[in-house]
Amino acid sequence: MVPEAEFSSYYGRPIVKEPTWAALDIAGYLFLGGLAGASSALAAGAQLSGRPGLARPLKLGALGAISLSLVALVHDLGRPARFLNMLRVFKPTSPMSVGVWILSAYAPAAGAAALVELVPLGRLTPLGKLGTAGAALLGPAVASYTGVLISNTATPAWHEGHREMPFVFVASAASAAAGLGLLGAPLQENAPARRLAVIGALTEITAVRLLERRVGIVAETYHRGRAGTLMRAAEALTLVGVAGALKSGHRSRFGAAVSGAALLAASACARFGIFEAGLASSRDPKYTVTTQRERK
Amino acid sequence: MSELSLLSSVRGHGDPAADVYGEHPPRMGFFTDTSLCIGCKACEVACKEWNQVPEDGLNFTGMSFDNSEGLSADTWRHVAFIEQPATDEVDSEFRWLMSSDVCKHCTDAACLDVCPTGSLFRTEFGSVVVQQDICNGCGYCVPACPYGVIGKREGDGRVWKCTLCYDRLGEGMEPACAKACPTNSIQFGEVDQLREHAAGRVEQLQQAGVLGVRLYGHDPNDGVGGDGAFFLLLDEPEVYGLPPHPLATTRDLPRMWRNAAIAAAGLLGAVGASFVGRR
């Protein structure tokens, strides 16, 4: 048993402020943005390799997820009517500013990519191709920048894990997109989704382990309380999803759908878990003080 | 390195307004000497009055004489009260630590760095101020501040904090809190001069036998490039609710962007790899 670290505080009050963000909006966005970004990349691969049945649900899912994301992001602003103020400036020092610009390029591309699936575009088909390619290239940026967004804060559970966070996020996004592919694609076309599920899951489990080792005492916040429950659920669902995908993803439509749903749920649990760990680490001054004392 | 170039490199680091403005007045700030604080809270009241900061709850916290709890959207000066066992023969049974906290107006200000609208800006005096007509309430600055200073105002949706009385400074007046402080615990002036004065005060107190005297936020080489509002404390910073080694996390940002780019490329690669093999 490791003894509790000695530290002083001002009546146990937090030193840093916890984020004012609503979990449903922002953790929800971390999940949906990742799902959309990785789905666009997988959809482009599906289209290139002649798997229209895999490309279609991914493109539609990406557009749905990014549209919901934009609603959530605007909803979370204290002054939603002023959301366009984000476009006054471009600031590389603000991951949120960089992200807004990435999103404003990505969302129309994802829209164009999905549009060709919904309506016959005729002469506008090249637009759909351009959208598919653009969304595939920008999608990974959408999935990874959010890792920087939350790490560039004084929130101990997030900042101390800043090296691993983008890798955790893209891996979680990859398993979510693989899950969507398994859920929506016909069996004879879902092989790439199954492979991506394995790669995503293994990377995510490894990256989360590395992050928890890196953050030192703050790892407690990933293991305890609501965050702990969510993180454990994420890992269990990931394993269930991957096992299901490998065992029956190629021969049972039901098996593939259940595995896909498990992977999607796993990704959502991981994002909400990481979000909650951040809140917990801001509330207890112990994490601010001990990480700073150790850093010195 | 010659004395002149050493000086200019130090100046360049401690003069944040120089990045934005050509000709500008000297950097202004606070030196809060907590050894002089008597806990009268005149600073809290003067700040609320002058800046028309709304009432934010009349609570009884049980934290000694502190009922304003901490800095927030609606508390821009906050007096901390700490009751401790006596540390030397000068005090009888216990000693009071009282300290008026405020926005640090960091040289490397994380809130300003992460603000995606440009609402937070650097004034010509080197202070950091929110432009309320720009802020859209995204809230990013709130967890970014390593001191937990800036907050979102309930029912308003925007973030608020100390402005170093930007409106008064423009008229050549000192901030309301410093004006109201009856013991000169809150000293307002040019940051360079305040730093010199603070160093002298530390020496004076140490010679008088006061234990635990230290400056906090005065060092341009700390994690935030030094504070425009710094302190003389009589105990560890965390005893006052201050972070021991605050960091503007934007300093790690280049490395973070690099990792994000590698991760994004990795995702593309993983997707590509998923298409290799049997159908």
Number of helices of chain B: 8
Q: What is the CATH topology of chain B?
A: Alpha-Beta Plaits
Portion of residues in helices of chain A?
A: over 70%
> What's the total number of strands of chain A?
0
CATH topology of chain A: Formate dehydrogenase/DMSO reductase fold
Gyration radius of chain B, rounded: 22 Å
Description:
The complex is a heterodimer of chains A (296) and B (279). By secondary structure, chain A is an all-alpha fold. Chain A has a single domain (23-295), classed as Formate dehydrogenase/DMSO reductase domain (Formate dehydrogenase/DMSO reductase fold, Up-down Bundle). Chain A contains 11 helices and no strands. In chain A, helix 1 packs across helix 6 (165-184), helix 3 packs antiparallel against helix 4 and helix 7 (191-214) runs antiparallel to helix 9. The longest helix of chain A has 31 residues, at 253-283. Chain B starts with a helix and ends in a 5-residue tail after the last helix. At the A-B interface, helix 1, helix 3, helix 4, helix 6 and helix 7 of A face helix 3, helix 4, strand 6 and helix 8 of B.
Which secondary structure elements does this structure contain, and how are they paired or packed?
The complex is a heterodimer of chains A (296) and B (279).
Chain A: H1 23-48, H2 52-76, H3 95-118, H4 125-151, H5 156-159, H6 165-184, H7 191-214, H8 220-223, H9 225-248, H10 253-283, H11 285-295
Chain B: H1 3-14, E1 28-33, H2 42-51, E2 77-85, E3 94-102, H3 110-114, E4 120-122, E5 128-130, H4 141-144, E6 151-152, E7 159-160, H5 166-170, H6 176-180, E8 186-190, H7 191-207, E9 214-216, E10 229-233, H8 253-274
Parallel strand pairs in B: 1-10
Antiparallel strand pairs in B: 1-8, 2-3, 4-5, 6-7, 9-10
